[in-house]
Amino acid sequence: MEEEINAVLTAKDTKESLQRFRQLEARCENSNEMYQYWHLYLAGLKGKTSCNRARSFKLLMKTVKWDQQQQLDQHLTTILTILEDEKSITVRQCIPYLKELLTLRPDLEPLVLDKLVQLKLDKYKESMQCLIKRDIQNLLKAVRGYSV
């Protein structure tokens, strides 16, 4: 299984790799068996491509509900660095997945919101800055039922 996960996390962004990722994502969401591979997902946050980093983050978020060992608490700061990714598309892909985290761990909302507020969006194109801001608003609506 570790080889399969590593293959998915390091694969180029193709239709085939996306399909394999979605299957893995579904397994993470539906079964705690995938939680044991958290170390792989964490390592994947340092992947070479933005696609690799985003996939790792998404799998982490999908396995948060199985986190009985409280690894999330130990690694949250590292995990949230994805929100500072050099690629704006990666940030946009990851923000909606924070809903998984905030729904299960509302106690982390102040920390996550603080991180979102402190994002330096000026490194991205203006059009992407607006989209990221909208993504944050949509996240807040989904979690709180309203935006700030």
Write structural notes for this entry.
This protein is an all-alpha fold. The protein contains 9 helices and no strands. The chain has helices spanning about 1-10, 15-30, 40-45, 50-65, 70-80, 90-95, 100-105, 110-115, 125-145. Helix 3 runs antiparallel to helix 4. The model has no long low-confidence stretch (mean pLDDT about 95).
Fold topology:
Layout: H1 2-10, H2 15-30, H3 38-44, H4 50-63, H5 71-80, H6 88-94, H7 98-104, H8 109-117, H9 126-144
How confident is the prediction overall: mean pLDDT?
A: 94
Structural class determined from secondary elements: mainly alpha
Q: What is the helix tally?
A: 9
Helix content: 55-70%
N-to-C terminal Cα separation, in Å? 42 Å
Q: Tally of extended strands?
A: 0
Radius of gyration: 15 Å
Keywords for this structure?
148 residues; mainly alpha; 66% helix; 0% strand; globular
Concise overview:
66% of the residues lie in helices and 0% in strands.
